[in-house]
């Protein structure tokens, strides 16, 4: 199991951490692929779809993201020398026998990511119908696999990405822009690889599992347009580089081809399979909570919006459990997942999960513990996964002052409330655990 480093002074804290650990372990790519992909002779089964390998002369593995290395490991273990070649781009590439592991960076794209992605593009170009392409589509690939479109430099793409991240834009808006500034996003891999058979192995980090949004949809039709991308820039009043706005305006005017849309022939031989998502992790956490003697409830795997507002809702749920026994009686564990955002106005250190915990902590009822992490092990731009808090962690005045500066990390570190995991090798968004003990327990 992956190491989780956090202070757990009570059994309540331990239960919260156990739930988080189980959730992350359940969506480790090696485990997910092992459970969903099988080989029987010449028949490859992915979920409930079968592929006759005798129909193909070559098998390639490409893709990337935070879980890309683990997907590659699992496929090499399953298929061995049936794999002819491969390129998978990840933040911390390991070693492979048949699949090249190349470096990329997250959340802002890098030069090395561009070079690695160029190798992938070379591999999937000019394929024929007797090629099978297995594509690892995992969270973070939007930044890790950058392929700036003609006329857009990497520095311009980086600046635009940073502005979008700081604006509080949700992932759908962020990706609507990125898909129209890239060669691979928005169905780009499908278009390059056609007429090969393309199989997307998807680990979703997107609320609702929209295939067009996960990793910016490299193997999925794009329902957004150049006009949608321009609308995002206008709604958030972003002063992006001139080359970015020029490309989007040219696309809006019909001077640049749109991304492939639903019904495009490039998708005739493409199938995508969502193998794991936030609910997968929450379901595993629910089992641990029940086995520990708590009544568990999955509140939602689709929580989104400002982290501080979501925190207030979770506090309200804890208060309701203690006051009325609704929606369930204590001892209870309430679980949620999703993707919260932070509108950055200060220059401190933090991320959505840290701000979520810092906002909630001072208002938590006694006997209640709240934990929130990013399942990839890095919350926002920090090197910590998130935090584990209770009513004693921090006073409201200190919390407010830190939140005003978007500086949640230092105060939570001083309170010894951080959860540190290192990179987990997977990503299915944020995971939250709220443990509520009965009043007589406190």
Automatic annotation (TrEMBL):
InterPro entries: GK-like_C_sf, GK_N_sf, MOFRL, MOFRL_assoc_dom, MOFRL_protein. Residues 333-430 form the MOFRL domain. Residues 94-113 are annotated as: Disordered. Residues 95-113 have a biased composition (Basic and acidic residues). Keywords: Kinase, Pyruvate, Transferase. Residues 16-248 form the MOFRL-associated domain. GO terms for molecular function: glycerate kinase activity. Transmembrane segments: none annotated. GO terms for cellular component: cytoplasm. This is Hydroxypyruvate reductase, glycerate kinase. It comes from Haloferax elongans ATCC BAA-1513. The lineage of its organism: Archaea, Methanobacteriati, Methanobacteriota, Stenosarchaea group, Halobacteria.
